[in-house]
Amino acid sequence: MLLLLMLLLLLLLQLLLLLKQLLILLLLLLLLLLLLLQLQLLLLLLLLLLLLLLLLLLDPAIFT
């Protein structure tokens, strides 16, 4: 099960490298999910920061 999840994550990352719009959509969906789950604000900000760092690693040109 864990292996399958990791493979799905890798496939998703490959897709995200190809489709920047999908990545942005995924970020928005994750944000909505976190808001629905009503996580603590600090945790939410931390996760957002991690996602932005991931974005920067995937494609530095996004922020320039």
SSE map:
Elements: H1 2-18, H2 20-37, H3 41-58
Structure description:
Helices cover 83% and strands 0% of the residues. Helix 1 (2-18) crosses helix 2 (20-37) and helix 2 runs antiparallel to helix 3 (41-58). The longest helix is centred in the middle third of the chain and has 18 residues, at 20-37. The radius of gyration is 13 Å and the shape is globular. The chain starts with a helix and ends in a 6-residue tail after the last helix. It has 64 residues and is mainly alpha-helical. It has one domain (2-63). Keywords: Membrane, Transmembrane, Transmembrane helix. The chain crosses the membrane at residues 28-58.
Radius of gyration: 13 Å
Order of helices and strands: HHH
Main sheet specs: none
> Distance N terminus to C terminus?
39 Å
Mean pLDDT: 74
- Tell me roughly what share of residues is in helical segments: over 70%
Q: How large is the share of residues in beta strands?
A: under 5%
Q: How many structural domains can be distinguished in the coordinates?
A: 1
